[in-house]
């Protein structure tokens, strides 16, 4: 229905007739003849004067849904891109570390594995990592190198018929040319199962520290070098 303001505006521009063509006298502001129903003018109220019936409000135009920003993936074992990037260099470093004489160059293979992991992650995701994040990937790479090396050593031990560790140490001591008293003391320690277990655990812990430490340095260095190339 047109509002009173709209009717006043149209009445000022188009005066209302006093009588209809049928002869009936029209009341003031009449839009139609009350006798014959004939419209008395051809003026439509402005569009903004039309009122929307209650309950039929026009909904606002639908906008495209705004997706929340995706949080950056955490550098951890739960990130598949990290595992896919760290596993190949870790496997190569573990294999090289299991080869006699070549394993002496572990101070080269382990940092190279961390560096390569960061580089592969950069290629796979397109993300430039900070040195701290690169060090995390290096740590994960070092843990993978340690696990794969331990698996290779275990398989080699089983395939070799489970050689006696004590016998291997005896042969190494005899070939080392150490004094007999020192050899006897070392053999006494090895013959004790508790002492042998402690020695093995200490050796594994030392290997883990060395492997992870070198890989962390390589990962941080790789992130720093790639960050400069950005």
Structure report:
With 230 residues, the chain is an all-alpha fold. It has helices spanning 4-13, 80-97, 106-125, 131-159, 165-176, 180-191, 193-229. The longest helix has 37 residues, at 193-229. The two termini are 66 Å apart.
Mind sketching the topology for me?
Layout: H1 4-13, H2 80-97, H3 106-125, H4 131-159, H5 165-176, H6 180-191, H7 193-229
Task: Using brief descriptors, characterize the structure shown.
230 residues; mainly alpha; 7 helices; 60% helix; 0% strand; disordered N terminus
Element string (H = helix, E = strand): HHHHHHH
Stretches with pLDDT under 50, minimum 5 residues: 1-12
Tell me about the biggest sheet?
A: none
Structure summary, number of beta strands: 0
Q: What overall geometry do the principal axes of the alpha carbons give? A: rod-shaped
Tally the helices: what do you get? 7
């Amino acid at each position: 229905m047109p509002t009173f303001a709209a009717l006043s505006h149209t009445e000022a521009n188009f005066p209302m007739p006093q009588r209809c063509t049928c002869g009936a006298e029209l009341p003031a502001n009449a839009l139609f003849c009350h006798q014959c129903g004939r419209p008395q003018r051809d003026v439509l109220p402005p569009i903004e004067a039309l009122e929307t019936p209650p309950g039929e409000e026009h909904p606002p135009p639908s906008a495209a849904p705004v997706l929340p920003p995706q949080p950056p993936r955490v550098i951890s074992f739960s990130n598949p891109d990290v595992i896919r990037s760290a596993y190949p260099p870790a496997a190569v470093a573990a294999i090289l570390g299991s080869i006699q004489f070549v394993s002496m160059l572990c101070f080269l293979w382990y940092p190279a594995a961390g560096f390569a992991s960061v580089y592969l992650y950069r290629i796979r995701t397109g993300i430039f990592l900070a040195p701290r994040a690169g060090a995390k990937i290096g740590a994960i790479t070092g843990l993978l190198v340690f696990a794969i090396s331990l698996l290779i050593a275990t398989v080699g031990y089983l395939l070799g018929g489970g050689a006696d560790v004590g016998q291997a140490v005896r042969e190494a001591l005899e070939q080392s040319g150490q004094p007999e008293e020192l050899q006897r003391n070392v053999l006494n320690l090895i013959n004790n199962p508790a002492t042998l277990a402690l020695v093995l655990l200490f050796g594994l812990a030392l290997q883990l520290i060395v492997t992870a430490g070198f890989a962390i340095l390589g990962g941080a260095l790789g992130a720093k070098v790639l960050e400069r190339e950005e």
